[in-house]
Design a protein that fits this description.
Blueprint (H helix, E strand, L loop, with lengths): L1 H8 L3 H16 L9 H10 L3 H6 L10 H10 L6 H23 L5 H12 L2 H7 L5 H20 L4 H18 L15 H33 L1
Helix pairs in contact: 2-6, 2-7, 3-5, 6-7, 6-8, 6-9, 9-10, 10-11
Length: 227
């Protein structure tokens, strides 16, 4: 009888699907109710600039890298950017984050604990706030979770080790292309993985070096505006 009770407490797969659908629903409801605020207007303004200006950093926002604005630029070429359409990509990305969190948690905690964590994330007012904002923050979380999953694969398996190392380096670079705070991720630094850390850092450095010149131009352009 006790065994049956324990089995009843184990979340079924469809429980997670229902939680994810609930999370998506509350992210979509009322998405366009609030008017655009300053940072979201900045997103629209930067995304509306020519692509070469975004990549060179010669636009209004001189404090964030270009990846989110590049993606928003292409999204804006498909649909006009309004309160709803600007925020829709953030909501859909955060919907994917629910599944990424599920995949990450299942390697470290029990299924019932994973269900609790995923449910808390899905209905979190904090995450809901950023999922309904036309900025890059849910994309940063997306790359952070993919990066953690890649590191988890490096630690737990010896198969395709270099592939996962390359993935972690590229995703780390994409995260920095999205927000500068992402550069605080330092990757694997345990002695047994010193070579893996070296390759990951090399791939990351190679991927990000093309933006360094634009980064300098970005801040030079900001100084010109202040003068």
């Amino acid at each position: 009888m006790q065994l049956n009770n324990k089995q009843e407490l184990v979340p079924r797969p469809y429980w997670f699907v229902l939680v994810a659908i609930l999370g998506l629903a509350i992210r979509l409801i009322g998405m366009g109710r609030q008017s655009l605020w300053l940072d979201e207007m900045t997103s629209i303004q930067v995304a509306g600039e020519p692509l070469y200006k975004i990549l060179k950093g010669q636009v209004f926002d001189n404090f964030t890298p270009p990846l989110y604005y590049v993606l928003l630029h292409f999204w804006g070429s498909i649909v006009p950017l309004t309160e709803t359409t600007l925020r829709l990509p953030s909501a859909l990305i955060d919907f994917c984050n629910i599944f990424l969190l599920m995949a990450l948690c299942r390697h470290y905690i029990s299924r019932i604990s994973t269900f609790v964590v995923v449910s808390a994330y899905a209905i979190s007012p904090f995450m809901l706030y950023y999922a309904q904002e036309g900025r890059m923050y849910t994309l940063v979380v997306f790359f952070a979770m993919v990066y953690c999953l890649a590191l988890e694969r490096i630690v737990r398996t010896e198969r395709h080790l270099m592939v996962w190392t390359a993935v972690s380096g590229v995703v780390l670079a994409l995260g920095v292309y999205t927000h500068y705070y992402f550069k605080t991720n330092r990757g694997i630094q345990w002695p047994n993985f010193s070579s893996i850390y070296f390759y990951c850092s090399a791939i990351y450095s190679f991927s990000i070096c093309s933006w360094l010149c634009c980064f300098s131009a970005q801040h030079a352009f900001k100084d010109e505006l202040l003068e």
